[in-house]
Amino acid sequence: MVRYPDGPIPCLEDETCHVRITDIRDAGPIVILGFWGFVLIFCSAFALWRWYYSYRFPILPIIIEEKNGSGVNEDDKGSSVQEGTSKHTSTAEELHLELDEARVLLITGYTWTYFGQFCYSLCCLISLHWVALYVLILIDTYNKCEIGGIDNLCFFGNNVIFGTYELNGKIFFLVWWLSTIWYTTWVLNKGKVHNWFRMPCDLSLATVVFVWVQGQQETLSNNVFSLVHVLQQAKNTLVPADCRGNFETIDISTTSLGQRYFIMRGQRYLVNDKELQRASLKVGTSYIDFYQAATGLTTHEAESRLEKIGPNEIPFKPETWMFTTVDELFSLFHVYQLVMYMLQFWNSYLFVASLMTCIVLLSASVTIYSRRRSQLAIVKVIENVTEAYVLRDGEWATVHSSKLVPGDLVRIKSDWLLPCDLLIIKGFSAGFCVCNESALTGEAMPVQKYMAANNIERYKSDGSGARHTLFSGTTVLQAGGSNQDDVLAIVTSTGMATSKGKLLASILYPEKMLFKYDEELPVVVLLLLAYGIICFVISIFFQSHTGAQSYWVTKWIYCMAILNQIMSPLLPVALEVGQLHAVERLKARGIYCLNPKRIAIAGKIRVFCFDKTGTLTKEGLDFVGAQSVSSSSDGPVFESVKSPVNGDDIEANTIHGLATCHAVTKFGGQYVGNQVEVAMFSSVGWELVEDANEAPCVRSPSGKVLRIVKRNEFDHARASMSVVVQDEEGQLHVYCKGSFEKIKDLTAFQSFPTNYMHIAHQHAQDGCYVLGLSFRSLGSDYNLENVAKLSRDELEKDLDFVALILFRNELKPDSRNAIEALKEGEVRPVMVTGDNAHCGHYIGKQCMIVAPGVRVLLGDVDSDGRLGWRSMGLKGEDSTQPLSTDELLKDHIKDLEAGVEELAVTGRAFTVLRRSDVIYRLLPFTRIYARFTPADKVLVANMHRDSGLIVGMCGDGGNDCGALRTAHAGIALSEAEASVVSPFTSKEKSVASTVELIREGRGALHTSFACYKFLIMYGLMFSILKLCAYWYGIILCQMDYIFIDGVAVLSLGYAMTLSYPEEKLAKMRPTSSLLGPLNVASVVGVWVINLLYLVGALNFMVNHADYVKWPAVYSHGASWWTLGDNWESTVIFFVMFFQFITSAFVFTFGSVFRENVFKNWFLMVSYGGLLVFMSVLLLLPFSGFTSYWHVASEQFNKLNSTSPVWMAFQAHGGSPSSAMPFRFRFQLWGLIMTNLVVTIFWQKVVAEGPVSKAFANRCKRVQFLHYKRKKVGPLFVFVLPKTSAVVMLVLALSTYMIKELYFHSDRVKKGSSNISNSIKREWLHDSLNFSLIQKRENLHAVLGVTVQM
């Protein structure tokens, strides 16, 4: 078997073979050209008709501007809509456009025509016919090809269709460019193309709508390069507005009753003639509206509402396998890969291209499977098929949950997974439900829901109305106090309008977040493109100067190969690859992630907010006791702290308050409710008695009974709750419990001890959760009917103070270690709690949020509404004169900046500070946010975001759901595997999860950048490899490319992603800038080092006595498999292969974010194995094994050489030369090892070592100075001169290499002789029987093309 192919015989030379196409007038070309003309004529005719129709009957899009942020305001009268929409008043029966976000929608109707559909079908056929043409070209290229070994793998065929290699190349060139432009245009306009063949029309005639939504995104960078802004401005100028947002073409559907509608992002829009309405239905705005509507619906009313708002379901369906496959494969990423691989398919790399295509298809298959599995998982979450007992037409009937509509009156049952949002309006005596809301909030403890009061108070399901609302997706554990207690509720919202639907919408359609590397990636791509174009031009010159025979299509193919290697389609993937393994590692630690993108964001967190109770502290609170007051000659005084658990004798009024002033209920024989109230009630030893026919009561061990006739549940805004109690004599009493500050406001000052606030603060500073209890006797002036009519404000006034109620708030054992780890990692922990500031201060000191020796100044508002700042934790602080905010900023700013002092702020003070921008000046110094409502917690997270900081939030998912969703990386401590309340959920319920999240985030970000740098280095080095090869007129053998692309890149690229994050957080965060000085220094530094050693190796080679330059003049570029039998290939391959694999090794250095590279055993085995294998391969003597890689230990230029090029060289006067001696190969190996050592030194000491740290510190100082002076691009000023110097160095080295190689060719001792063009032509006809060269010359002769020598 011969080493190189010697057949098949070209079809033009084979008498038994008939060339199918010899002229453009043959049937095949006529059919193709006719088809192109047919499509062009018909599509042009349709385009003209469409233009004329649009000119005569212009159709303007409907514009919907959505302004509000949270539903419909109280005074909403409809929507301000332009172009074809009308206004609608808000009534219980009428639809309105609900404005939920600040965005703009453009909606255009289209209808289909037979002519347009026919033209669209023709274009689809065009897409398929490109594939058919490729198949035809490849059949011609490989027909009857030989397969005889690694150097004879079906490299060329007999050109049975087109007859010649040159004609085949011309046709391939034309088809490649046309198909690339066609597919690229189609992909970039995916979602629009079909509309090009539809007619724009009014909505009344439309069959589809094209919806453009203004793009919404948050940019998580505040210090990007000026070039990014320039590029963004250019994009906004060049790219049409309708291409910058999100767009979608949606079919218009019709209900059974004729209502036309479409669904966009889960929202239903109604099409009524030429008008468009967003479907939603308001039953009412106040509680009294719901009570008035709670009469049940008729069947006609229910069907009418169902017709408008649609079924009660989340309108999400999994994609079909066919759609998912086409959508995934027909993406710009895969189209780019496939068109580039098509170049390899044509250029005799059939098996290699097939292997790479299979890898791409396998990767796409995994993506398609994962995408399908994720969609099915979402369907499983949203699927809730159940039945409801509904009042219809005055009778109770069973209705499928999908048929529920707002306004339906539903009977609640126990153990029921709720299909919609409902408001409890009737419940006889008890009127409550016990619910499990962990699926939505992450809170594992059951919560109570109560019947809403029939008053004019505005209903807000996410505010004070939450205690009366049964949310979709939660489970009713118990309905009523007994099985006979019917609880009735009215449906308030269904489908995507429910709380569950809104949370799922945030998952299905998340806010787009742009990281700094997302903004800089287009700049990197443009720079690589510019570099690739330069290499493209240089490679044309290099290929021409060797004198090798190469058809222009062949040269173009080789130039495109450089561009393909530089412009890697995997760059965007590399920036996300680190997050995929981080997801699995977090899952193994009980941390579940809904959005992997947030993992990298977590690596840049600067501020982490923590809830206190249940997060930093244990979930359960221990009841300490009560400190009652007694009368004395000096007025009320505090007694000692007493606890009923210890058998202490406690004043009766205090015991009664502890036994009744709560919202505890029974479920399954245990008490459920707020944990504080459960602990308080359990301590008194009384029994709770609940009956369906009367109000609940409590009974003491001695038999005393107190009945709770009215209850005002705890309200975050009021910070209090109250009950009306009837004793055994029928007397009515009011007990009110709340924060000790709020109780002070509600209670007569004469009933307070003079040291009330001092004692309360002392308890708080000792770590107690402190509540106040007050009392009021209504006497005989009120009866049950009168009390029922009293408002809450009327009940909670003229109270007398009874006692302070104390609970111990113990710190979790691992909270302190976690906070210390965060602080050591330069993450600022802050506390955001609903508790009082002094308790927060105590816990803050215990867990090290507040460092030892740091003085904390508390900002609070006094009774006169004045904001003042006092020191916390000092005796006599109440008597000190408070500081104003101006005095604070004037006299204490240095201590605040030095960290000697920090701030705490209450919710009331926060409200005052928010009225001016001064809150943003105080934000960096504020450590504790106390007495904060859930809405205030959201504001804190938003303010940190607005300050340009990446902020995290950790809570138990109870009253901090909004903040968890608002933060860049919220983590809920919940037993649920995947809570929709936040991007991350930790089943461990430990704040140590935040440390794990940041560890993985930093490690994932560093891993992604390592893979990115490796791909950049791969492209840069491969471009140099190609340029060197083209300069010498060589091409590496097939096994070389297989080992580079198929072994080294795949194995090491995968191994790089397996590094684990460092156990300890470093005092710095990984860079998120692709163009930052550290990444540029790392990549450019390694590249320059590699270039220097490559130049040195080539210089060492050309100066060797036995070296003979490769006689490229006798070669043919298309026969690339013959161009690797030379010293140049061996030197270039081995030097650069070691550089490739060492780049992967050095970029995997952990720095301070990942574990040491030596702990990545897969990488070490892969790298070490390749290092040893290639070293042995280089040093081994010639054998059949080394011949697979064409190692120059083989004597290529020997007598009777098997290489056709060396044979021609000797035939024209050249002398044989020896193989590459062992001594030279060993010296070359030593040079390569030196290269590895220098590269490792650069990366370890300079790029990621003390030099880079010193540079980073200097950049921070420069950045700070420029920021203070409000200059743009602070780092650019500092980095640009250095970058320019590096670029000049690279250009100088490249120029030196070209000069040295060019002039040294005249000094080679055993060089090739100068051969005139006439001798070359004579040799082409009379030399050895090398059929391929004969074929090329004969084909040139047939076509009349002169071969350029």
Automatic annotation (TrEMBL):
Its main location: membrane. Residues 294-333 form the Cation-transporting P-type ATPase N-terminal domain. Gene3D superfamilies: Calcium-transporting ATPase, cytoplasmic domain N, Calcium-transporting ATPase, cytoplasmic transduction domain A, HAD superfamily/HAD-like. The keyword Lipid metabolism does not apply. GO terms for cellular component: membrane. One of its GO terms (biological process) is transmembrane transport. Coiled coil: none annotated. It comes from the Eukaryota. Keywords: ATP-binding, Magnesium, Membrane, Metal-binding, Nucleotide-binding, Translocase, Transmembrane, Transmembrane helix. It is a multi-pass membrane protein. It is found in: Membrane. Residues 386-506 form the P-type ATPase A domain. The chain crosses the membrane at residues 30-52, 114-137, 171-189, 349-370, 521-543, 555-575, 1015-1035, 1041-1060, 1080-1102, 1130-1149, 1161-1182, 1226-1243, 1275-1298. InterPro entries: ATPase_P-typ_cation-transptr_N (IPR004014), ATPase_P-typ_cyto_dom_N (IPR023299), ATPase_P-typ_P_site (IPR018303), ATPase_P-typ_TM_dom_sf (IPR023298), ATPase_P-typ_transduc_dom_A_sf (IPR008250), ATPase_P-type_domA (IPR059000), HAD-like_sf (IPR036412), HAD_sf (IPR023214). The keyword Metal-binding applies. One of its GO terms (molecular function) is ATPase-coupled monoatomic cation transmembrane transporter activity. Belongs to the cation transport ATPase (P-type) (TC 3.A.3) family. Type V subfamily. PANTHER family: CATION-TRANSPORTING ATPASE-RELATED, CATION-TRANSPORTING P-TYPE ATPASE N-TERMINAL DOMAIN-CONTAINING PROTEIN. This is Cation-transporting P-type ATPase N-terminal domain-containing protein. It comes from Physcomitrium patens (Spreading-leaved earth moss). The lineage of its organism: Eukaryota, Viridiplantae, Streptophyta, Embryophyta, Bryophyta.
